[in-house]
């Protein structure tokens, strides 16, 4: 069946209409959009609080205490924000009908300014026109907030109808549970899209008992996830298939998606919403195996961090480019820049840039790891590797979006295959973009990998980073990287 057209598939003696599946790239995060609207509300109320002072200054030559006015307006906006939040005016499940509710908006603005009435305003204006001041501030803040909501409401309706906020959910396992999940997700206002059924089992009687089209096997599901066409996977296999569930979950853990396992026990214990590591979708209970890394604001913040810092570092390093390029050319024959294929996010292959430090340009199936006294390394190359200056061109990879400043360090494709055979969890590093430096590097886990224990230690640090990412952790790693470069441990 075409993914763009609805069709009818026969199953259990009846015809079942299957809705078209969306396999588009991820849209905007619901939380990010709700936060933007909340910031707009804050700004509207803040400006409304300043409006009387602006009018009085131009019309009545007012001399006001602007510091106190700014503090008062900011406090009013914060009070109104938390009031609106407590009234579910930023509910991310209602993007299709984001509330305007003029009554609640007015009540929140009134409450905020009443709380501050007699506290900041009289002292700020140093005049007796308090009630006029109060009415102008409330009117201005309410009007601008109402305008924000009036603009946001139709825009969010159109975006919701276009599927911009849809969470794409795929199911592994074909049967009654998959059908129940589909029946819940087919509601167009649920904010989720059924992205397909996948199953390795053979036989029409087992693979399609509920009239749902099977889109492929486990490998097909993994490939679809690597194309960023799925956000969440629900493993819907019989509970008796413990070994199979465990195998599938481990294979899917390496992907940048949320993973859940259907369990009847969860349905019995959880009535509504998530509880610890147990959640439910409709009447189907699930155990949460892992959450998708870097969601909502995280990818936006991390990208801004990469662009700003890499641009600044690249500008600062420009003089070094000419000096290093000249040194490489004078020292040995060959190009200045060495390009080697590496695996990035979702194992996408890209060309990582480095200053050439060897006499050879190895990028095949057999790439020996660099030894401490490696004859392939040039004289200039030894210095560049010792100081990590050979990594500077990767700032261009960061600006191009193929890498980040901080993340799991990418290895040559040949080494990826080798280390993947040594440790199954190795592939889990590809849930995020690779980095110029990472938690493993600042912990001293650099240089040649010679044993399974070395792979486990490095992968363990990388997975800890993915699980605990924060902007503070990135900055801490960048600062520790400077010290690691100065020490030069295991750098060869």
Q: Could you characterize what this model shows?
A:
- The protein has 492 residues and is of the alpha/beta class.
- 49% of the residues lie in helices and 13% in strands.
- The protein has a 7-stranded mixed sheet with strand order 5-4-3-6-7-9-8, with helices on both faces. Strands 1-2 form a two-stranded antiparallel sheet. The protein has a two-stranded antiparallel ribbon with strand order 10-11.
- The protein starts with 6 loop residues before the first strand and ends in a 5-residue tail after the last helix.
Q: How would you state the average pLDDT, rounded?
A: 79
Order the strands across the largest sheet as they lie in space: 5-4-3-6-7-9-8
How would you describe the shape? flat
Number of domains: 3
Q: Please mark out the parts with pLDDT under 50 across 5 or more consecutive residues, or reply none.
A: 1-25, 265-276
Tally of individual helices = 17
Largest beta sheet, briefly?
Answer: 7 strands, mixed
């Amino acid at each position: 069946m075409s993914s763009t057209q609805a069709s009818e598939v026969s199953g259990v003696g009846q015809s079942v209409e299957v809705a078209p599946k969306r396999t588009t790239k991820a849209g905007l995060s619901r939380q990010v959009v709700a936060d933007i609207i909340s910031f707009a509300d804050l700004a509207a109320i803040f400006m409304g609080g300043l409006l009387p002072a602006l009018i009085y200054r131009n019309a009545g030559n007012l001399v006001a205490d602007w510091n106190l006015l700014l503090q008062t307006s900011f406090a009013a906006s914060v009070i109104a924000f938390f009031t609106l939040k407590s009234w579910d005016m930023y509910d991310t499940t209602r993007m299709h009908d984001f509330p305007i509710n003029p009554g609640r908006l007015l009540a929140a603005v009134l409450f905020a300014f009443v709380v501050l009435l007699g506290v900041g305003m009289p002292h700020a204006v140093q005049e007796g026109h308090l009630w006029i001041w109060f009415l102008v501030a409330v009117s201005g803040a309410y009007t601008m907030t109402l305008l924000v909501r009036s603009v946001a409401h139709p825009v969010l309706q159109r975006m919701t109808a276009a599927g911009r906020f849809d969470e794409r959910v795929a199911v592994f396992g074909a049967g009654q549970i998959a059908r129940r999940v589909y029946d819940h997700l087919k509601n167009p206002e649920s904010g989720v899209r059924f992205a397909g059924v996948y199953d390795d089992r053979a036989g029409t009687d087992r693979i399609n008992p509920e009239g749902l089209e099977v889109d492929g096997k486990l490998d097909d599901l993994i490939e679809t996830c690597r194309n960023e066409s799925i956000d969440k996977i629900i493993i819907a296999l019989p509970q008796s298939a413990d070994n199979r569930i465990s195998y599938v979950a481990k294979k899917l853990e390496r992907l940048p998606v949320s993973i859940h396992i259907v369990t009847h026990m969860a349905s019995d214990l959880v009535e509504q919403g998530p509880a610890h590591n147990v959640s439910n979708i409709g009447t189907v209970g699930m155990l949460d195996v892992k959450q998708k890394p870097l969601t909502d604001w995280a990818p936006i913040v991390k990208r801004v961090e990469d662009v700003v810092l890499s641009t600044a570092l690249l500008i600062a390093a420009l003089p070094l480019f000419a000096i290093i390029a000249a040194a490489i050319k004078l020292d040995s024959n060959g190009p200045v820049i060495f390009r080697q294929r590496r695996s990035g996010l979702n194992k996408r292959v890209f060309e990582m840039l480095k200053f050439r430090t060897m006499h050879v340009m190895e990028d095949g199936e057999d790439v020996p790891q660099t030894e401490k006294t490696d004859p392939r390394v040039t004289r200039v190359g030894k210095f560049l590797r010792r100081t990590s200056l050979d990594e500077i061109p990767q700032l261009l990879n960061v600006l191009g979006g193929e890498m980040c400043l901080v993340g799991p360090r990418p290895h040559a494709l040949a080494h990826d295959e080798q280390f993947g055979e040594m440790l199954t969890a190795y592939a889990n590093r590809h849930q995020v973009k690779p980095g110029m430096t990472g938690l493993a590097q600042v912990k001293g886990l650099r240089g040649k990998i010679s044993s399974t224990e070395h792979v486990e230690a490095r992968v363990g640090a990388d997975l800890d980073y993915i699980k605990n990412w924060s902007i503070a952790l990135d900055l801490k790693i960048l600062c520790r990287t400077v010290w690691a470069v100065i020490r030069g441990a295991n750098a060869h």
